Amino acid sequence: MSTTAIAIEQEHHHHGRPRGWQRWLFSTNHKDIGTMYLVFAFTMLFMGGASAMVVRAELFMPGLQLVDPDLYNNLITNHALIMIFGAVMPAAAGMANWMIPLMIGAPDMALPRMNNLSFWLLPAAALLMTLSFVVPFFPGGGSQINTGWTLYPPLSLQVGMSMDFLIFSLHLLGISSVLASINIIVTLLNMRAPGMTLMKLPIFCWAWLVTAFLLILVIPVLAGGITMLLFDRHFGTSFFTAAGGGDPVLFQHLFWFFGHPEVYILLLPAFGILAHVIPTFARKPLFGYRVIVGALLGIAAIGMLVWAHHQYTIGMSLAAVTFFMMGTILISIPVGLIVFSYIATMWRGSMTFETPMLFAVGILIMFTFGGLSGIMLAVVPADMQYHDSMFVVAHFHYVLLPGALFGLYAGVFYWLPKWTGHMYDERLGKLFFWINVIGFNVTFFPQHFLGLAGMPRRIADYNAMFAEFNMVSSIGAFVFGLSHLLLLYIVVSTVRGGVRADDKAWEGARGLEWQLSSPPPFHSWSKAPEVA
Amino acid sequence: MDAQLRRRNRRLAWVLGVVAVLVALASAAFWMRIGEAIS
Hints:
The complex is a heterodimer of chains A (532) and B (39). Chain A has 532 residues and is mainly α. In chain A, 67% of the residues lie in helices and 1% in strands.
């Protein structure tokens, strides 16, 4: 994006800046709220990661060693929900809070008090979700949540009171997401600096605009579905109870109408981050700005029409499965356009490979691999074989870890100098990348073979023939998990000190955000810049 | 933020909020019919 900002002179307001705990509890400052989102997400990442470590420890060898099958499935449920709703979504929202006002020349988010509410709903939701995990361990606490994150009835109708805690937690998380989305849309549509037309909007902002509309359209459907589940559990309705004339498959439709776009909700902000990282370190303008914007809209539109590819085995009509199969394969076109635009941006660029760029290149390779196994799963007769196997687990981790989590890591390393005013230790950053990527591939690559050989997912024990690959996968997972302690060290040490970062921390960086100081003043853009 | 911009922000936020609530209310009735039709 070629923008020239003038009138960057900042007015320094020192009045009304709260101190101590009040600064955080009552904060209406987009940077403070962004920081709280990021700290919350990082904490949840460790909680969700701990669940995954126990799962992989259990799968280290055949037989039941550490946990019983119900607790195993509770850990899987907990891992998925914490990672999706607790780690990735809040981290992306944190970056949106931090960066969108800086990028568009706005003094803050459009609705700062609602911003505060959006964040503070999260700890309450996290508490309820933690309760849903621990309640079954107490006398009278009922059974474990052994449904997985999909919460399919009839199993979810039979789970004890922990399911109610989980449903309320999801309601709070949903309200938080919808409020944050409303705030982001209003900010992007109403608060742009003079001269910043929609087609000059940085791609990260476009990605979030599309994501926010997706959230507003699909989160309420999940809310409707789980409310109906709650009614079936406690108020005698039969929405999903076959014996009462209801249909359990209806819940699957409701869930996946939310669940599939949710994948893009996790991916698109990370795609947006890459659109800033890659041009910076290739020292070239972004290739295909309009194509990328169109592709983001295309992904959102098609992504809302293909939900039932998660349900091929329920016995849909041939016309229905054909529609969902074709639609799913069609998504590879806009996704491919984005990937090719990023590759074209790198083409003949003066590339250097700092940590954010390493993650960006790694993402393009590993995410594309996950996309290819996605095309295999989109094909109905093939999916009948792969369904509910470890192949699916390998596929979605290859999509979501590079596509979402590594994208967020790229963003953390890219913007950390802007946020903290300090450069992180590049040597440690690169070390983290390599341990992380090797650990990730050792964990999930063997799971393709396990799935193709017939190992089912969501079962704690397995046949001895799967032992070797599972052991390799678990060792990879421990390496991957432990590598995050290094990330924690890098982030904490960068926050505490280090080499001072320039306002424009990266030589090839473009955009309004780099014209503010590092870190930006408490009240940024109190005078709007003009974009040429 | 001037008062006019604040009003515009609030108005757009309310519209989006109402859309979200309508989607939630419509989902149950609508999806029951779709679910029956394609399963």
